[in-house]
Every structure is written in C-alpha cells, then in structure tokens.
Amino acid sequence: MKTKLLLLSFLMLLTIATGYSQTSANTAGIAVQGIARDANNTARINTSVSLAFEIYYLSNSNKAVPIYSENVTLQTDAFGVFSHVVDPGATNNAVIANNQAYIKISEGATIISDEKLKHVPYAIAANNGVPTGSIMPFVGTTAPPGWVLCDGRALTTIPGSQPLRDLLGSNNTPNLQAMFLRGTGSQTIFRGTFAGPSLNQPQEDDNRNHAHYVNLNTNSAGNHQHNINFNTIPTSFDAPNGRRPFMDVDNVDGVAAYTVVRQTRPAGDHSHNAQGWSGGSGTESRPLNYGVNYIIKL
Questions:
Q1: Are 43 and 35 a contacting pair, CB within 8 Å?
Q2: Residue 238 forms part of a structural domain
Q3: Could you tell me the pLDDT band of residue 231, with boundaries at 50, 70 and 90?
Q4: Which of 95, 159, 225, 232 could bridge 257 with an S-S bond, Cβ 3.0-4.6 Å?
Q5: For 102-116, 135-149, 250-264, which range has the lowest pLDDT when averaged over its residues?
Q6: Pairing label, strands 293-297, 192-195
Q7: Number of domains observed in the structure of the chain
Q8: Residue 241 lies in a domain
Q9: Average of pLDDT values for 103-129?
Q10: pLDDT for position 294
Q11: Do the domain assignments include residue 45?
Q12: Angle, to 10 degrees, between the axis of helix 121-129 and the axis of helix 90-97?
C-alpha cells in the first residue's frame, strides 16, 4: 500500500436489511466494495443501487460537521458485488487527516453503515508529521493542496479551514510577507534576556544598544597665531621721539591713519575634540537572506 493515501485500511460495514461487506483504501481515495443483499440476505445481482456517501467529524459538542458527501448509482455484478471510490479531494483529505472522521453509507432512508475511518500505520505516521498550523518555507507562488499561503488572505471561503481558524483565532492567514519567523516567549542566554513576539503576533524591529568607533579628532599640526587690530591713529599724530605706531597706513573718514596691529602668542601644535555620528543610508537592519513564500497547513 502506498503511503500517499492517509485514510484507512479495512472497515467492516454493518448489514442492515440490505447487506454490504467491507471497504479498503487505494491511492485515489476511499475504495468501497461490498455485496448488495435484500431483506432475505439474497445477493442483488446485476442491478442498480443508489447510495449516499457522507464523511463527517464530530465537534466538541458532539455534533456532526460535514466534510464531504456524494450520491451515486452503482451497478452490481453477477455476484451482487459493487465497487466505488469516494474521493473527497486533497483539501478535504487534510481535514480528514486531522480529525477523527466517520463515513456513513445509506440507501434512501436506510443507513447501511456509519463507522470511523480507521488509519493504517503508514497513515498515522504521516498524519502526525504535519499537524494543522504548521508553517514552512515554499518557493512556489501557489500553495499545494492542504496548504495556504501566509499572505493575510481570508480563510472563510476555503473548505476545511475551520480547524486552522480555531487555532489562529482569526479568519485570515498570518501575513508573513517580508518577515522572519522567531520563537515566541523569552529566555536568558549568552549576554542577557531576550524576548520574542507573542504567539500569532508581529514584533517591531529594533537595534540592541551599541556604539561604533569613529575617529573625530582634528589634526595635531595646529601651530598658529592670530592678528589683533586696535584703534587707528591719524598720521598727523606725532608720537614721542617722532616714532609712529606700528604697521599699515589706512584712510579713515578721509584722514590718513596708522592701524595698530598686534599678534597673539603662538598656540603651538594641538588638537580639538569633536563629536558626531557614523554614516548610514539603509532603511532596516537585516542579515543575509533568501526570498521564499511561507505556507501554513490546513
């Protein structure tokens, strides 16, 4: 038996008025095979039988929640045997795999069988491996059967999505576009206590308190002097001993005058402290990454 089918191995159907035998699984769905009998337990050979197949699971309040149903007319053979494959589809298969499902078979008002779908060992292993709400990276743009893209889309129109909606507490998938996944909760490790986002909630970006080394000192070759200009003295002014003030001759209000100039003492080689920020032009802090779509299991 291939592991692709995750539904059941053998299921014995009850005999009520009209009797049927057993069902088995194949790779296309739930294979049902039985013998149609009348009230006298005589095989109904070479005749048509109209059957209704219903697959459902029970809610917490023990009410039947429909998964899939179909009505078919089947032809029995020379021994009264009929065969049929109930294929609920990939999306409904995901619902069946994550719930204890039942199959009910009836002819008109007569219920022929109402039994649990029993899993083969291979199916149990596969079923437990990918529970509802599992998230994984995916390089496609269309989610495979039983999965939905995590792009915030509505789940209300997707068959079999109720268990996922109950788990999320939302009618939409989480929008994980441009996001990384991180474990929820917090722990103290390495250099401090770190807190992840709350379950099913985003977390704002942030940078840990840190510093960057930047050399902001001015050059130490700074030996220089400054000129200081004092009051001007008219050229007509006679200084003692006939000496004139130092330096240049200016013209102030049409009167020739000397400008008295002095210089500061040499400052010597020195430097100045300065403050500033290191440069940066990015819009976010991020590690090297690779683009994928995230998908979530129904």
A1: yes
A2: yes
A3: low
A4: 232
A5: 250-264
A6: unpaired
A7: 2
A8: yes
A9: 73
A10: 96
A11: yes
A12: 90
